[in-house]
Specification:
The chain is α/β, with parallel strands linked by helices. It has a domain of about 230 residues: Aldolase class I (TIM Barrel, Alpha-Beta Barrel), CATH 3.20.20. About 35% of the residues lie in helices and about 15% in strands. The chain is built from 14 helices and 15 strands. A ten-stranded mixed β-sheet has the order 10-9-8-7-6-5-12-13-14-15. Strands 1-2-3 form a three-stranded antiparallel β-sheet. A hairpin with a 4-residue loop joins strand 12 and strand 13. Helix 4 packs parallel to helix 5. The chain is globular and about 80 Å long. The structure holds iron/sulfur cluster (2 copies). One iron/sulfur cluster (SF4) binds next to loops.
Length: about 475
């Protein structure tokens, strides 16, 4: 059982009460803090003491929790077969790995020699067949046919290099429009290495594709991105991007974005400056993956992982943590107006932050195997799309998730980080004897809150940025 509130002190000696019952953070005057501590210790309350009376008043009006311990907020066994089925038939986003093939051999590729995970050994250059994609699109039921308001659905294309299987992209786009356009606003997204993008650009413009091009910066920064014969790719991609920027300026401005991997030859600061200067774009930066690295990688590969101290990445990470903290504990963030009428403080939430399968997306690998997203290990699929039928058992998926969560429940119900932990147990491949590195007891949660609040206190401008993000 966890306490219903935590008191945390910032490095600037300010005290805050985090009410975990209704998710609110209160700044505490020192005398009020002492009165709360007194009342917790059940000391005799001096009736004449203004702050003691105030504690009683705040409790009476449920601003301070009335009891020291919280009712259990975590629940287990919540995945139901019909809910999983509903999401599978009414997806918001479907991501297709249209091919395992790639015309590049980037040195840090998660499917390359540096890594042992991600199902690398199973990659055989397979491509998805349109018959499989069609079965999945036909399976979409659209639960609001009677409504005049269209739902949103997006299709993403991923690889390998997706453009090596352009035919299936073409067919999926045409078929999904013919089949779903009446009830859905459809959008298309693709991540590409950009080396042959010019060949198909007219099609992507016609269908308003949102395209992310992977590029690590200038020629030197991009030099881990090479063809199979080790030839650099920078100049080819650069020319194609410039061509699109010149010939189709409004498409370029609205629909083209960049993704950069940070490794030993670049850093976030120089990457961001480069993309603004050269392409008039902000760039999304992510570091080379440190998960699943082979034990026997060579010295050169180990060097790639040698990322410079990156102040900007640290700042980005702190901003993300602060945003998550305010979103989860400030108690004032509602995603819809109607949520204001449905505030339920006793609502139980799921152990861990694992999503209901398919509620966020459906990911189909080139061999037809089905996953809840691309970030989970690629060896534990939830079903398979064959050429003529879909093999999926919603009851056994629900059972599987429930069994995993049951294993986590005993730990999570005592964890103070339960509202915002961000841990996906499917991603982490947790099965038995769940031990969570992010588990927080009362003290470690209070320290965590103190670090976040101290950072915000020292960087007050952050609050406006956070507000902007939460209102998006
Ligand atoms: S990482 Fe886990 S929680 Fe996130 S979308 Fe994938 S399956 Fe869901
Ligand atoms: S941090 Fe770990 S122990 Fe805590 S709620 Fe999340 S998954 Fe459970």
């Amino acid at each position: 059982m966890i306490k219903s509130h935590i008191i945390s002190e910032s490095l600037n000696n300010n005290s805050y009460l985090i009410n975990l019952h209704d998710n609110k953070i209160y700044y505490l005057h020192k005398k009020l803090l002492n009165a709360i501590k007194d009342s917790e210790l059940n000391n005799k309350i001096k009736k004449s003491n203004y702050y003691s009376k105030k504690v009683e008043f705040l409790k009476k009006h449920a601003i301070l929790p009335q009891s020291i311990f919280m009712e259990e907020s975590i629940t287990e066994n919540v995945f139901k077969a019909n809910i999983v089925e509903h999401y599978f038939k009414n997806p918001k986003h479907i991501l297709f790995e249209v091919t395992e093939m790639c015309n590049l051999k980037c040195r840090y590729c998660i499917y390359g020699d540096m890594y042992h995970s991600y199902g690398n050994k199973d990659r055989q250059g397979r491509s998805l067949d349109f018959a499989q994609a069609k079965l999945l699109i036909d399976n979409i039921t659209c639960d609001n046919k009677s409504s005049k308001i269209k739902k949103n659905i997006s299709f993403g294309f991923y690889g390998g290099e997706p453009l090596l299987n352009f035919d299936i992209i073409f067919n999926i786009v045409k078929y999904s429009i013919s089949k779903l356009n009446e009830h859905y606003n459809i959008s298309f997204h693709m991540t590409t290495n950009g080396t042959i993008l010019n060949k198909y650009i007219d099609f992507f413009i016609e269908h308003n594709f949102f395209i992310t091009i992977s590029l690590d910066g200038d020629a030197l920064a991009n030099s881990h991105r090479v063809y199979h014969n080790q030839k650099p790719t920078f100049m080819d991609v650069y020319k194609i991007v410039k061509q699109i920027q010149t010939l189709y300026p409004s498409f370029y401005e609205k629909n083209i974005n960049f993704n950069t991997v940070i490794h030993d030859l670049n850093d976030t600061n120089s990457a961001r400056k480069y993309f603004i200067r050269e392409f008039k774009k902000n760039v999304n930066c992510e570091t080379v993956s440190k998960f699943g690295i082979s034990d026997n990688i060579n010295t050169f590969s180990r060097g790639i992982l040698d990322i410079k101290e990156d102040e900007i990445l640290d700042k980005d990470q702190m901003l993300n943590l602060c945003t998550m903290f305010i979103d989860s504990y400030a108690g004032l963030v509602y995603s819809k107006y109607t949520d204001l009428n449905n505030i339920n403080y006793n609502k139980k939430i799921l152990a861990t932050s694992t999503c209901v399968p398919f509620s966020k997306k459906i990911f189909i690998k080139a061999d037809g195997s089905i996953y809840p997203c691309e970030n989970v290990p690629h060896n534990n699929y939830l079903g398979k799309i064959h050429l003529k039928y879909i093999d999926i058992d919603f009851a056994s998926i629900a059972d599987k998730y429930n069994a995993i969560l049951k294993d986590c429940y005993a730990t999570c119900k005592n964890c103070y980080f339960f509202r915002t932990c961000g841990i996906c147990v499917i991603q982490k491949e947790v099965n038995h004897n769940f031990k969570c590195a992010s588990y927080k007891n009362q003290k470690s949660f209070s320290n965590y809150a103190s670090a976040i609040i101290s950072y915000i206190e020292s960087n007050p401008d952050l609050l406006n940025i956070i507000k902007g993000r939460l209102l998006q």
